[in-house]
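User: I want to check something. If I give you two sequences, will you return the structure for each one separately, not as a complex?

Assistant: Yes, each is folded on its own. Here is the first sequence with its structure:
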Amino acid sequence: MLRSMTGYGRGEAVAEGLRLTAELRSVNHRFCELSARLPRALAAYEAEARKIVQEKMTRGKLSLVVTWGNDGEEAEEPGGTLTLDRKTAERYLQLLNEAKGAYHLKGDLDLNAFAALSNVFVWQETARDPEFYVKLLRTVVEQATADLLRMKEQEGEHLKRDFEERLEALRSRVALVRERAPQRVRETFEKTRERVKTLLEGFEFPEERVVQEIALLSDRLDCTEECVRLEAHCAQFRRYLNEESTPGRKLNFLLQEMNREINTIGSKSNDFAIVEQVVEVKEELERIREQVQNIE
């Protein structure tokens, strides 16, 4: 299934009172480039997270952000308990009382001043098996990756329908050029022949020589071969859309060939009807090219 390069995916898992969330974003990029930001407790497992994402993605600039959350609020580290370090607090009080007696100081230590003392209150983190973190991280990253893929595939379906419509419009215009091309050659033959007659009026001229010159001119004017190749490229474009999930690079190369063919047709055709179609085809190809930049 065709996939866009832009999208967003989210994964969330809850275990032992902790909630871990992963957000994965993707934008257009020539190659597959992934940046990851994980909490400190999970930093050692970044390679595991990268492997999960990169196994599913081939192109795009990806950003993975993993965060802890408790009660709807984002947290830097998982859980834990805020406790009072009694030994540190008692030592503070002892030293303060000694200083008060030794230097005849006045005043009492209030709650605000006590709370401001360094290392009186400390966080005690819950000890957990590393496998707990790995499993939780793997779960949310897999969810975010699957969610991103769904969004990319949905967008890819919209792009595919747009491509089909534009290719049909392009094919119709090339068919008009192909139909007009032989008429253009015949008209050129007749006009050239009449001009020669007018210039050499009253004189005999070798008809075979005129035919030879017209044949050379016709070869330079005939764009049937380019039209056939352009139609073949359109068919190949459709095959890539239907048979491959990540045809972005191939479609880019194919569009270069299609532009080359239509430019050749334009340079050969000194005819208003053909030039008009050439301009429309080039415009459609440019619109397709813009959309192809968003295909993985």
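And separately, the second sequence with its own structure:
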Amino acid sequence: MEDVLLNKKLQRITAVILHKKEELAEQKRHYHFYNHDVYVQLVPWRKNLIEIYAESISIDEEHTFQILEKWGIEVANLLTTLQLPLDIALEEISYYRNQIGEVITEEAKKENFSFDLFSKVISRYNLVVDKAVHWVSKSYMKDYIDKIQSAQYAIDELSIPVVRVTKEIGVIPLVGEIDTHRAQILMENALKQGNTYRLSWLIIDLSAVPIIDTMVADQLFKVVAALKLIGIDVVLSGIRSEIALTMVQLGVKLNDIVTFNTLYGALEYTSSRVK
């Protein structure tokens, strides 16, 4: 019997909060720092948050957490889509922690809650709010990292392009230092695009590569070997005198790889070899 009475009291608190949902959602209209269009898009998930907070008073805790997880993912997606900082969501969550906490306190007084019961209800409510912070932060960081990785992949693709100059000849103009990561992108792009274009020759131009040491040479050997396996011959161009001197001093040997000091020379050579 006591449990039934308690549930009714908790449901009444839920009902009061839901009744004030519109009012609570509109309280921030006059001092938001983002533009009106953004405000309009934030209102639905703000109301949704208030509903979750309200229902958490009287429904199963685990069910509330499941709802919060879904809500957190949706909010994070919205923030990243609108290019808004995580601070906005955290500020909203904190704001309604206090506003709804006051409603709970007032209603608990009207229902003559004991101190222990009030403490139990408010502690559970604060746990729900903490879970909201957790899920939004976790989802936001995942979306943020995913977007950074996608952007980095796009940059890598653009930084090591395969330029098709004739039906059978392509050029990869490298710019900057070649580290292990860029060497892997070079390998992937050369194989993928070389096969897609059905190239017979691929010129790797090193004119804008500042240093060719044993590590870079080793990576180039691997790329050349991989391309030969799919029937593409490789020529290196842009081997400047200072680079050649450094390579000799380091004992770097390009073995059977054909090299030219200019891209023009490499193009002339490969064009003469195309049947």
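Because they were folded independently, the notes below concern the second chain alone. Residues 2-155 form a domain with the Globin-like fold (CATH 1.10.490.10). The mean pLDDT is 83.
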